[in-house]
């Protein structure tokens, strides 16, 4: 089995790099990829480790980049990237797009939105939020759910999963939780250009989780028709069996490379296990044999 989509504490995962490697070894995974958001810093640590002490499979250098498409945030995955090129670029990019400042900005906006719509919230200064390492939307969502009184004030599906809050509500231009981040992140084309500059392959991840998209198949086709995309993440924890089959068939018929991953975040995404997702995944290395050595 393999898992080509997972996050560490270098972005919004709960597990350290070493913890991720140990778990991958326990699961006897043949291939893994650390795909932290907007950084390859995990690979700087990796270079300093005696890796086979923790994991004996193969590691594909990867990254997941948040980018803007039609005023909404989506992601693209880069595989087989030169991580030094990525990190050097992100170091310069962060001088004008400070993650710390952006997360503090989003935290303040979301907190005020919650108060405006009458949700019960702790005093802002009492919420344990560190803009250097925390994600604003995660902290606000946790805070909302910590007050049972808010349940009757919100749609039931929002109460269920953070992904719904993040991808459906915060990502919907017409929703009260929406934040316009179009000036804060690179465009899809800029993200693709960076991955290509780093010698990598560009994949579209988790197309079905964008709950703001009324027609997700059309969104997939629009992105593929507009940009130079190499492959599609066909297997993901949030996909149904039918969705996985559709994407596998689509990718094969249209000559796109195939990847798959759990989108593992440790305890930050409850119920998502490395390699197995919600128990619905079993990703074979055969799926990536046509591009793994590119």
Describe the structure in brief.
By secondary structure, the chain is α/β, with parallel strands linked by helices. The protein has helices spanning 17-26, 41-48, 83-96, 99-116, 136-145, 156-160, 162-169, 188-197, 216-226, 241-253, and strands at residues 2-6, 31-34, 58-59, 62-69, 72-79, 201-204, 231-236, 257-261.
Q: Total strand count, please?
A: 8
**By CATH's scheme, which homologous superfamily of the largest domain applies?**
Metal-dependent hydrolases
Strand content: 5-15%
Count of helical segments?
A: 10
Mean pLDDT: 94
CATH fold annotation of the largest domain: TIM Barrel
Shape-level CATH architecture of the largest domain: Alpha-Beta Barrel
End-to-end CA span = 20 Å
> Structural class of the secondary elements?
alpha/beta
How is the largest sheet built, in terms of strand order? 4-5-6-7-8
Helix content: 25-40%
Q: Just give the CATH class of the largest domain.
A: Alpha Beta
* Largest pleated sheet: 5 strands, mixed
- Order of secondary-structure elements: EHEHEEEHHHHHHEHEHE
Query: Rg to the nearest angstrom?
Result: 19 Å
